[in-house]
Design a protein that fits this description.
Structural class: alpha/beta
Strand order of the largest sheet: 1-2-3-4-5-6-7
Oligomer: single chain
InterPro entries: Metallo-B-lactamas (IPR001279), NDM-1-like (IPR050855), RibonucZ/Hydroxyglut_hydro (IPR036866)
Protein name: MBL fold metallo-hydrolase
Largest sheet: 7 strands, mixed
Helix content: 10-25%
C-alpha cells in the first residue's frame, strides 16, 4: 500500500485495487472507505506511520457497496469501536442481505471489470448508521453527505465546503483524465450525478480510483462532466 499526502489534514491509502482516505481533526480520525478484506493491517500501519493512533478512528464512511471499498470496515470498526456509515440503498448489500447489483457494462469495461473481480469478496459488514443524503457529519468542519446514484443506487459523495474538498467515491474517476466512473448500474443517472458534483466547484477532489485532483479542480470537473 502507498501512503500519499493530499492536504495537511488528508492522506490517501492506495491499495492494490482502489483507495481510501484518512481525514484528521486533531487526534480524531475519519476513514473514507476501507479497502478490501486484506487491507486492515495496512490501514493500521499507515495511520501509525502518520503519527496517529488507530484507536482514534471515530467513523468509517463507506461510499458504496463494492468489495474494494468496505472489505476491511468490519474488522477495523470492531477493533477500534468506530461507527460505520453508508447509504440506506447500499446498506443491504454491505450487510450481505442482497446481491451486488449488476452493472451495465460497455464493451471496453468488461476486461477491467473482470480484473476488479480478482479483489477478494467482502464479508457481511454491519452498517451502524444508514444515510439518505443531506446529512452533515461531524468532521472536516461539517461534511455534507451527497447522494450520488448511478454507479450503485446508494453511492454517496462527501463534500467538505469549509475546506473545498470533495470525495466522489466511484461516481467520478481519474485515469489519465478525469472521467465518469466505470461499472455503472445506470449510466444516465451516473452522468447526472457527475454534473451535480462538478457544480459544487471543489478545490480538491478525491476519487475512489486515480490520483486526487488538486489544481484547477473546479474547472477540470466542470469540463469533464459536460463532455469537455
Amino acid at each position: 500500500m502507498d501512503l500519499v499526502e493530499v492536504l495537511p489534514q488528508l492522506d490517501m491509502f492506495r491499495f492494490r485495487i482502489g483507495q481510501g482516505y484518512l481525514w484528521r481533526d486533531g487526534a480524531d480520525l475519519t476513514l473514507i472507505d476501507a479497502g478490501d478484506v486484506t487491507s486492515a493491517a495496512a490501514v493500521e500501519d499507515g495511520v501509525r506511520a502518520l503519527g496517529h493512533d488507530p484507536a482514534r478512528i471515530r467513523r468509517i464512511v463507506i461510499t458504496h457497496g463494492h468489495r474494494d471499498h468496505y472489505g476491511s470496515a468490519q474488522e477495523l470498526a470492531d477493533r477500534y469501536g468506530a461507527e460505520t456509515l453508508a447509504h440506506a440503498l447500499d446498506a443491504p448489500v454491505i450487510r450481505g442481505e442482497r446481491p451486488v447489483p449488476e452493472p451495465d457494462l460497455l464493451d471496453w469495461e468488461r476486461p477491467l471489470y473482470a480484473h476488479g473481480l480478482t479483489c477478494p469478496e467482502a464479508p457481511p459488514t454491519r452498517v451502524d448508521r444508514e444515510l439518505a443524503g443531506g446529512e452533515v457529519l461531524p468532521f472536516g468542519g461539517g461534511a455534507r453527505v451527497v447522494h450520488a446514484p448511478g454507479h450503485t443506487p446508494g453511492s454517496i459523495a462527501l463534500h467538505l465546503p469549509r475546506h473545498g474538498v470533495l470525495f466522489t467515491g466511484d461516481a467520478v474517476a481519474s485515469a489519465e483524465r478525469v472521467m465518469l466512473g466505470v461499472f455503472n448500474v445506470d449510466r444516465a443517472e451516473a452522468a447526472a450525478t457527475f454534473r451535480r458534483l462538478a457544480a459544487l466547484a471543489p478545490r480538491t477532489v478525491c476519487f475512489g480510483h486515480g490520483d486526487p485532483l488538486t489544481e484547477d479542480a473546479a474547472a477540470v470537473m466542470e469540463a469533464a462532466a459536460n463532455g469537455g
